[in-house]
Amino acid sequence: MEITQNDLKDFSRKVYDIKNEISKAIIGQDDIINQVLTAILCEGNVLLEGVPGLGKTQLVKTIGEVLNLEFSRIQFTPDLMPADVVGTNIISQDENRNSRFVFQKGPVFSNIVLADEINRATPKTQSAMLEAMQEKTVTVGSQTYKLNNPFFVLATQNPIEMEGTYPLPEAQMDRFLFKLDVKFPKLEELTEIVNITTIKETNKLNKISDGEEIIKLSNTVKAVPIAKPVMEYAMRLILATHPQDTQSPEITKKYVKFGSSPRGAQGIIKGARVKALMEGRYNVSFDDINYIAYPVLRHRILLNFEGISENISSDDIIEELIKLIS
């Protein structure tokens, strides 16, 4: 599949219309909106982290409404069980009063699943999400069920240092394409938020897209070419996050315990392709790789004791690696 000029214009116009509609309900957070849409067009999951009250849940609900996708919300709590997420077999009687087991689907059977405060559930419940987030299937007993297409998990998380939270398993964190840090709004944005929520009537949102069109746009992304030097640069960046690699920089060997998985490499390439299309370009640039590296790698770089004790962040490591490798 080759991308034509019309494909490029249609992609840019559609993404612009979607972002413009979302901005009616979400004030500020332009970069977060941009990156969530990038992940959706990459068919990936997103983890939004920030303190309560920043509009993370509202953002996900708004995206579901604007994209006209089936939406479900799961409130993660310490007493939530796996069956509450994926569903369970129940006994049902047919017209002849014969009993049989029938699978009752859980809320994970949707297009967009809002996993609200996902780090408040126990590891047992988190395990129910692993298969759904990667294979897009659910297995109950001996039966495997396919999830809807498209399917995305958009999860919110409060910082780990807040009470009543559980750190997500590394295997689950790796299934999130992006981890986004939601910042507190600026003065002008905060004023507008208060005006909208306490004075003005809520804007009615239009449905800009649908599942079939999202799949079509995602297929367009896969056709974006990447020059060999750009691809090699992205792979060197991934390898530089591994302290065991003999050629990794000193900052990695000093502060990093574990580096990115191959999913990180896939995520950088996918995200960079979307960014290029959003900006009306046919091919991926080095700047696209650098921009996408932060949301893709910040949760895949695990710091060692020295890094944590010196208050080094994953973003600090990524910034330094980009300077050294560019």
Description of the molecule:
By secondary structure, the protein is α/β, with parallel strands linked by helices. The protein folds into two domains: 212 residues, P-loop containing nucleotide triphosphate hydrolases (Rossmann fold, 3-Layer(aba) Sandwich); 103 residues, Helicase, Ruva Protein, domain 3, CATH 1.10.8.80. It is built from 14 helices and eleven strands. The strands form four sheets. Strands 2-5-8-1-9 form a five-stranded parallel β-sheet. Strand 3 and strand 4 form a beta hairpin. Helix 9 packs across helix 11, helix 11 packs across helix 12 and helix 12 packs antiparallel against helix 14. The longest helix has 18 residues.
Whole-number tally of structural domains: 2
Question: How many whole angstroms does the radius of gyration measure?
Answer: 21 Å
Structural class: alpha/beta
CATH-level-4 superfamily name of the largest domain: P-loop containing nucleotide triphosphate hydrolases
Distance between the termini: 31 Å
Low-confidence regions: none
Q: In CATH, what is the class of the largest domain?
A: Alpha Beta
CATH topology of the largest domain: Rossmann fold
Helix percentage range:
40-55%
CATH architecture of the largest domain: 3-Layer(aba) Sandwich
**Number of helical stretches of at least 4 residues:** 14
Q: Please list the strands of the largest sheet in the order they lie side by side.
A: 2-5-8-1-9
**Averaging pLDDT over every residue, what do you get?**
88
How many strands in all? 11
Shape: globular
Quick rundown:
The strands form 4 sheets. A 5-stranded parallel sheet has the order 2-5-8-1-9. A two-stranded antiparallel sheet has the order 3-4. A two-stranded antiparallel ribbon has the order 6-7. The protein has 2 domains: 212 residues, Rossmann fold (3-Layer(aba) Sandwich); 103 residues, Orthogonal Bundle (Helicase, Ruva Protein, domain 3). It is 46% helix and 17% strand.
